[in-house]
């Protein structure tokens, strides 16, 4: 038992940190309604990696990672600049288009690179279980830096995320905040996806905050509840994955997903019951 | 080159049929802002196939190889039905979760559940990969006829009741609409959409269908809000991109799905340029 | 106003269409080049058209068919053999094929669609043009009938037969049988080439001296029965028989008996022939991530048994192997799985040389 805990200690720690960071971002993402942005970012990052490999650099080298990050930041900056006073094409659609074209290009390039099919988002699974304390430290430092940035600008981000129609500031001022938000977001995603896999990151982003939204409206409460749900869900998920002998990412994803659905149905049912008893 | 031409006829017709139905549905999808629904429904249908595969392995149900594709499709439709039900129920004013989030979570759960089920229940590596690109270059006339029938039935259904469906979509945008029983039409929308997706994806692959849904409808949104015009623009852009894409894929020997998507993206880009150009002109 | 926009749009798009078509005419050459890249020999009308799934089979086919056939293959040397995305040229190539040479187990699942749509009756399963090279090979890791709970990916046994040199001889035999059926006039030509090829493999595997003394067939039988090394321990002239061992088996002696792990089950036949003991796999099922228990088990095994080397086929992503290296101190050795997986590896002999040299260089 002790051996198992020692083995699982690093993965659990990273998952908890990820759950915390991602549920924070998730609240913003949910309010803005650009749910699939992390999948798009992951695909663009993979495309960036492929470009790096095509240019001849070795896999997992610093140059390839640099190219991947830069490419992602460029694309996401372009996206940030597509915010308008009146959105003719909804931002989620733009995300869809970016994802679609990114995946298309990746498919075309996949042939030219040995092992190219690895970079096409199938079930890009992470390697959380092989994580070393070194890597946990590395990631925490990056998350801390991003956390400080968000501490400085938190008011602006919340205001922009909360504005459904129109812009709270002038066009270019809003866009500048958007740039900071999205660039910091992409850095988190590009760091998190190789560790946890695309689906785990996606679920940790959306599910806890979705569950929290069911019951409360205030930002503060949502943050706290999504943190709690996210962290509890991850730890429980890892425990289940170990006892049932299934991979950890699917376990956490299924668990958190089911929790959201059950809570949502519960709420609908409770309302119906309430209405019926009132009659 | 003649062999190239009759090689391309079947894929071209299949693509046209796909574009016909997706230009229409795409507008709904964009207006309701449920962009990734086709990926989610395709994955849920795949989960249905995976479950049917496992059931087959466990010895339950028909063991006949010929019925293999049909029994898998049957379960795929059932799962779509379930999903349609879930989405309809959860599209509730009191549930403040945006529907896209529900769709996203359903997608993630469906994918990982499929992985777990296949891991535990089935022996062989299922073709999850094939679904991404699709094999439209190798579409058979049998598949095309099947697609044609479905497009006609569901297209016809949607044409007859178009006002009802448009009405429900308006509700999504928060606008007023006087449809009696919007829940029913919402459910019918998802269910018919699911059937179309299952057929379309089995021919064209998830990525192609996704692109056909989103890109023409987004491009047409730049120019007009009237549905008939948007469908026509969508058809125009779709057909031209398909022709160019198929040609390029043949000539450069690349998979045709990315080639078509590239041209769709190009047309969007050109349309944006054109719109800015026109705007500055009228200023 | 709106009509104006639509008209302008139409004009713009038509002009773009025309210019692209003109541009693309130049690009037509690319297609020709692509369709010839995967070929050996020269195109000719009286030649047979052999299409193989993998480059390894194509290389063997070329030895046997010589200049009587044009040989091509579909999966690239550095591609994942489980997942080959379809391209237009494949269907064309298959529709003109006289023979389709494939493993015959459940490795090339992607070929089913291709064969279906190629509409080439000659190469369908059961016809004379369909060659399943695994017939008669001693398949490792077959799964017992009722045992699906293990969830083994390949139910009919390990299909990566190209890593065992003994299997090349059987592959050659099967290809020859197919060639004789399709082109009986040249039977003796194919048979001679086959015998030459088999002899070449024997000499490369055992070394000239032993082959001259006992003949390749006997030695192979002993190798498969695991009685070869006991036999070689017998005294001969001033020393033992084993002093006469040459070829790959001799080169592989330094790592005979060593324990390793491999990322996936690609290397079963290689390790079986050269005495490597594979104690575990990181990802036995492609696409399905290993569970925590499995990962913990692997880490324990690596530490307890002091495993120093992990074989990874080069089509895998390097990220996870590198993390495993960091976590356990093991060394990951990336090897191409097929001929042409690296530039300079032109046939199976080059490939085996490369594998043995690399393993020797990296094992401790």
Please count the helical segments of chain C.
14
From the spread of the alpha carbons, the general shape of chain A counts as globular
SSE arrangement of chain A, N to C: HHHHHHHHH
Helix and strand composition category of chain C: alpha/beta
Largest interface: A-B, 51 and 50 residues
Sequence of strands across the biggest β-sheet of chain C: 2-1-3-4
- Which residues of chain C form runs of ≥5 with pLDDT under 50? 39-44, 146-152
Give the strand tally of chain A: 0
Mind describing the biggest β-sheet of chain A? none
Cα-to-Cα separation, first versus last residue of chain A: 55 Å
What is the H-and-E element order of chain C? Answer: HEHEHEHEHHHHHEEHEHEHEHEH
Helix content of chain A: over 70%
The secondary-structure class of chain A comes to: mainly alpha
Low-confidence stretches of chain A: none
User: Beta-sheet strand percentage of chain C?
Assistant: 5-15%
Provide a brief overview of the structure.
The complex is a heterotrimer of chains A (279), B (283) and C (364). Helix content of chain A is 78%, strand content 0%. Chain A has 279 residues and is mainly alpha-helical.
Structure in words:
The complex is a heterotrimer of chains A (279), B (283) and C (364). With 279 residues, chain A is mainly alpha-helical. Helices cover 78% and strands 0% of the residues of chain A. Chain A has helices at residues 2-32, 37-54, 62-80, 91-110, 133-162, 171-196, 198-215, 219-244, 248-278. The radius of gyration of chain A is 20 Å and the shape is globular. The relative contact order of chain A is 0.15. The mean pLDDT of chain A is 84. With 283 residues, chain B is mainly α. Chain B contains eleven helices and no strands. The longest helix of chain B has 31 residues, at 2-32. Chain C has helices at residues 2-37, 55-65, 88-95, 111-118, 165-182, 187-206, 208-214, 216-224, 228-232, 247-251, 268-274, 292-304, 319-328, 348-362; strands spanning 48-52, 69-73, 99-102, 130-132, 235-236, 239-240, 259-262, 277-281, 309-313, 331-335. In chain C, the strands form three sheets. A four-stranded parallel beta sheet of chain C has the order 2-1-3-4, covered by helices on one side. A four-stranded parallel beta sheet of chain C has the order 8-7-9-10, sandwiched between helices. A two-stranded antiparallel sheet of chain C has the order 5-6. Chain C is 47% helix and 11% strand. Chain C is globular. The model of chain C is unreliable at 39-44 and 146-152 (pLDDT under 50). Chain C starts with a helix and ends with a helix. The longest helix of chain C has 36 residues, at 2-37. Chains in contact: A-B, A-C, B-C. At the B-C interface, helix 4, helix 10 and helix 11 of B face helix 1, helix 3 and helix 4 of C.
